[in-house]
């Protein structure tokens, strides 16, 4: 993990649509670059370098006025394309008065940003997440700052065998169950899929609270990684009622969206949402609260790991059987990084 290396040519989650009302702006760092996100009065979200071209004042300290963002220092104004549209003390606006604009797409409640070469930013490649628009589900979203490298968060989500230890009081379940469950990991063309099935098992506390299971359950955990997000479908049906043959509508489903955006080498934006198919009795709120509690437990773990890693970045680590999914993601990311690097060299 030495040296900050990021995949750049990707759509990353920059935030939630709900983060910005018209006229609002926020400064965030992605991949070591400072960005200001802002929504114009008519609702269009833009992403610009968060540094005025005049004297380096952060534009995120300024104000949005109609279709421009104004620097708070000497009043230069910039449009969503990064071009300065007005310099108060002069008539002419030179061509050099512009700042970097990042491609940004708003879709399905998410803001997606492209941090790499803008010429390669194809909106058709924005990841699809139809759950956010599916009336079967109710969802809530959050943004957690994580004091740990992004790969630690990927590892955490790809290897759910930590559940009985870190999350015993929420989504855990007993350790023997988790370790007797085989983790199958499959490589996809641009991703990794991990499946764990736990037939005829005892429901964990969250499942009992939300869905009122009284007996044993057939439980699934299906995890799909694509750079750099993870979709996790977990849930259960009463044991023996067809969950593993695809009959799940009568059961309890939790759909987790996990957008992982590196902030710096040692910090990460974690944008997640949790959707459930039980909409009444306050279940979506209750599940969200329990999930948030669960993820705060992960946040603490990642922070502790990062302290040790930062103290000795070259120290050896080993893999165990349940790391198979995480290992596949590392292989895929390494391949994509090589491709990006060789592409960059070719185009020089
Ligand atoms: S620093 Fe932005 S207008 Fe002067
Ligand atoms: Fe966890």
Polypeptide structure, described:
The protein is α+β, with helices and mostly antiparallel strands. The chain has 2 domains: 11-125, Rieske [2Fe-2S] iron-sulphur domain (Rieske Iron-sulfur Protein, 3-layer Sandwich), CATH 2.102.10; 130-338, Naphthalene 1,2-dioxygenase Alpha Subunit, Chain A, domain 1. Helix content is 22%, strand content 33%. It has 6 helices and 18 strands. Strands 12-18-17-16-15-14-13 form a 7-stranded antiparallel sheet, with helices on one face. A 4-stranded antiparallel sheet has the order 2-3-4-9, with no helix packed on it. A hairpin with a 5-residue loop joins strand 7 and strand 8 (84-86). The mean pLDDT is 92. Residues 156, 162, 166-167, 294, 298 line the site of fe (ii) ion.
Summary, kept brief:
With 348 residues, the protein is an alpha+beta fold.
Keywords for this structure?
single chain, 6 helices, Rieske Iron-sulfur Protein, binds FE2/S2 (inorganic) cluster, four-stranded antiparallel β-sheet, alpha+beta
Report strand %.
25-35%
Which hetero ligands occur in this complex? FE2/S2 (inorganic) cluster, fe (ii) ion
Figure out the total of helices.
6
Major sheet: 7 strands, antiparallel
Contiguous uncertain segments of 5+ residues: none
* CATH fold-level assignment of the largest domain: Naphthalene 1,2-dioxygenase Alpha Subunit, Chain A, domain 1
Mean pLDDT: 92
Sheet/helix structural class: alpha+beta
Identify the overall geometry: globular
> What is the total tally of β strands?
18
CATH class of the largest domain, named Alpha Beta
Number of domains: 2
Q: Any idea what the CATH architecture of the largest domain is? A: Alpha-Beta Complex
CATH superfamily of the largest domain: Naphthalene 1,2-dioxygenase Alpha Subunit, Chain A, domain 1
The helix fraction, in percent, is 10-25%
What topology, given as strand order, has the largest sheet?
12-18-17-16-15-14-13
Distance between the termini: 27 Å
Q: What series of H and E elements makes up the topology?
A: EEEEEEEEEEEEHHHEEHEEEEHH
